[in-house]
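quick one, 67 residues, struct below
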Amino acid sequence: MPKMKTKKGAAKRFRVRPGGTVKRGQAFKRHILTKKTTKNKRHLRGTVAVHEANMGHMKQMLPFAGL
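---
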């Protein structure tokens, strides 16, 4: 039986909160920022929770996270 492995790319990008939700960084904030408005860039700051519809994928990628 092969071992279960964590997707290391996912482990670097996501953190599991104590309540069981997963936090992630915002996309679209890395480059080509000159054409984006200041308001848009301001709203992309910080972290947000992973949507409930994607939690099945999170459980597959992070099998030892306790999800």
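The mean pLDDT is 96.
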